[in-house]
Structure formats: structure tokens, C-alpha cells
Amino acid sequence: MYLIKRLLFVVMMTFVGVSGYMALFEDQFIYFPSRDVQATPADYGMTFEELLVGTEDGITLHGWYMPEPLSHFTVLHFHGNAGNISHRLSLYKAWQSLGLSVYAFDYRGYGKSEGTPGEAGLYADARAVWSDLTIRLGVKPQHVIIAGRSLGAAVAAKLASEVNAAGVVLETPFSSIPDMAALHYPWLPVRWLARTNFDTESMVRDVHMPLLMIAARDDAISPAQMADSIFAAANAPKTKVELPGGHNDFDHYSSMAYGEAWREWIAMLGRRDGSAVPER
Hints:
Layout: H1 2-24, E1 32-33, E2 49-54, E3 60-66, E4 74-78, E5 82-83, H2 89-97, E6 101-105, H3 119-136, E7 144-149, H4 151-160, E8 167-171, H5 177-184, H6 190-193, H7 200-203, E9 211-216, H8 224-233, E10 238-243, H9 250-253, H10 255-272
Helix pairs in contact: 3-4
């Protein structure tokens, strides 16, 4: 009996300790930034403008503006939780091949951007780059597509709930951080301990612009069912596409279908605003 009680005590203390550690160092389980900028758009044959953008709380963000001649829409991109913008250059090149200009930046604490990442900080970063794109660079809001992938989908949804743009694209989104914590650590009470929310499902209810949702059929990180719940909560007009592939490779695994989904949706946006978007 003594050994059983001792074993139960050890198990309980381990449970409490692991839960406490994850709660205390929560950000280490959410953000995986890299400071090493490995390439620039020039390495992919793209012209670009180097960006330094100040936030309302005094952080300087780094990014790139990659204009495409005669483009009608500009993609304002919010990347996922790992790496930095230099790891997404093939994606930016693919968007340019569709006739889109691209504005990409690193959140605070990523790449050459100052600071440390956090939920409120990433939302502040989004507001800062939106202002830079639409005011300093003079791109009209109705010509901006807000696009985010994974963690970036939550940031994109937050910004899209606050501004008017041509549309918003959410790729491999998760419903919320508490939902993700419960999914990946079901034996721990991390859902109830999480301080970070990134509640995409709630935020999308306040988005009133055309939505394109792209889910990955074999996504083991943000399962397609999460995209389903977000899509159900979203307002019309909305379009959902589910592509074969995993969380980090669906756009390569299904590159032709991925490009076609974007192409068709862009054409729809063009019809809505009465413009003739060039076919690529």
C-alpha cells in the first residue's frame, strides 16, 4: 500500500510539475523564431524594397515589399510560427506568378525584427504593417488581400476584423491555442492554463469580407476539422478548399491545385470590384 501511495504521489507531482512548466514557459511551445535570414527576394529573381516599420509600442519590424508590375492586388502576408520570411520566398514567387504583389514582414523577435513575440505584440505588428502598406506605400485597402497561414491565420483574422480589405485568406488555421493545447497534450490541463488565445474561430465572426479558406487534408498539426469549425463560424461570402498534403507541404504537394484555388478566388474578387484581373 505504501508503494502504491508513493507511486501515485510521484505521478501526481510529475503531472503538476509538467503542467506548471508548460504554463510558465508557454511561449516556448508557441513561437519558434529564427534570426538567420538566409536569402532575399533578389535570390529568387524578384525586385523588392527593404522595409523598416515602427510599431505603436516602439518596436522596429523588418520586411520586404515585392511589387509585381500591373498587379491589381497586393498580398499582405502573416507567416507561421517558425523561421522567418526568408523561408517563404518560394511562396512569394508563386504569388507573383499569379500577378500579385507581396508585402511580407517578420513579427517581433523573428528575423531582423526587434523585440520578443507575444499575442498582443503580434496584433500590434499587424496594425503597423497595415498602416505602412496602405498609407506610406499608398496601396488602396480594397486592393489588399490579407493572408495568413497557421499562427499567421489568427493574426490575419484579427486584422481583418478591424479593417476593410479586398478579402482574407486563411491557410491551415487552428481554432485557438487552448484547442491546440488540448489536442496535442490531452493528458494535461493545459487548455485551462493557457494565457495565449489566438482565437481564430471567434475573431472570424467579426470579419466581413470575402474569405478563402485552404485546409490540408493530412494536417497533423492543425487538423482540417479545425478549419471546418472556423469556416462554419465565418460570414459569407466564403470559399473553402481542402488539398492533399500536410501542414507544411500542402502547397508544394498540391501546387497546381493550390495555384488554381488562388487564381479562381482572385478572379472572383476582380468581378466583385468591377476590375479586369489579368489571367496568368
